[in-house]
Amino acid sequence: MPVGATERFSNRADAYVRGRPTYPPQLVDHLQQVGALKRGQLIVDLGVGTGLSAEPFLRSGYSVIGVEPNEAMRQAGDQQLAPYAANGGTYRSVAGTAEATTLPDDAADLVIAGQAFHWFRVEDAAREARRILRPNGWAALIWNDRQSTGSAFLAGYEEMLRTHGIDYANTVHRHIDEKGIAQFFAPAQPLVATFDNPRELEREDLLALARSASYLPPPGDPRHTAMLSALNTLFDAHQQNGSVQMMYRTRMHYARLK
Q: Dihedral of CA 46/11/7/184: which sign?
């Protein structure tokens, strides 16, 4: 993981829990249908953060080990997923990275990463995933892609990001790193599945979503006030019954790793 990335979200953990979208249960169903996941198997979630990507697997009865280098994010995830961790339950976290998980060889049946792959050193993470996977294990890289067209609100939010974002364009590019994705799975050719994932946001949810984004100015930054004003204006212009609809499409690249 690049220097600085480990601590980049330390002051955003609470906003991440409230603002970021969850992942749809259909992705678990799909992995089961294609034979990538079977009952009783163990999943390792690289860059688990606050646990959003682990939740659909835990709800479906799987055991998950979350690997997370950022202490604040890892603690927020432990708290969020406490019902699954109690009494020797199905979730636990470890302080590690995608490149050095601290886990033993042949520990997992499926390795996943939700919204975290762009922080990985691809070659090292690919090697580590193969080390901790059991023979014939699978991997899945998952993103919630926010839709920037389809409604006036979605277009307005995209414009707000481009106006007030710090390094927004570079972050968007990293999220669609086709070369890195291909390198991670090589020589396997990953398949792709997508699922609609809409979300209703009240004002505080929308503000939390913005606070969770590393490419937007945080409180204390001189650019934060203008960004906050634009966000509130956008919400007021498009809210219906106290909420706006943010549209996501969940994208999953997956393959059996050789």
A: positive
Helix axes 152-164, 168-175, angle to 10 degrees: 120
Return the pLDDT at 174. Answer: 54
Lowest mean pLDDT among 50-59, 147-156, 212-221: 212-221
By the 8 A CB rule, do 8 and 214 touch? yes
Higher pLDDT, 194 or 5: 194
**Does the structure show a pLDDT above 80 at 118?**
yes
Question: From the CB of residue 92, how many other CB atoms can be counted at a distance below 10 Å?
Answer: 14
Cβ neighbours around 129 below 10 Å, total = 24
Dihedral angle computed from the Cα positions of residues 85, 256, 180 and 145, in that order, rounded to the nearest 10 degrees: -60
ω into 187 cis (within 30 of 0)? yes
Instruction: Provide the CB-side half-sphere exposure for 98 (13 A, CA).
Output: 28
Helix, coil or strand: residue 16: helix
Tokens of 40: 């009783």
Tokens of 154: 């979605």
Q: Which residues pair with 136 in a beta bridge?
A: none
- For the cut 80, the answer to whether the pLDDT of residue 120 exceeds it is yes
Rg over alpha carbons for the chain, rounded to the nearest Å, is: 18
List pLDDT tens digits, range 105-115.
999 999 999 99
List all residues 6 or more positions away from 154 whose beta carbon is below 8 Å from its beta carbon. Answer: 146, 147, 148, 246, 247
Q: What is the pLDDT of residue 1?
A: 47
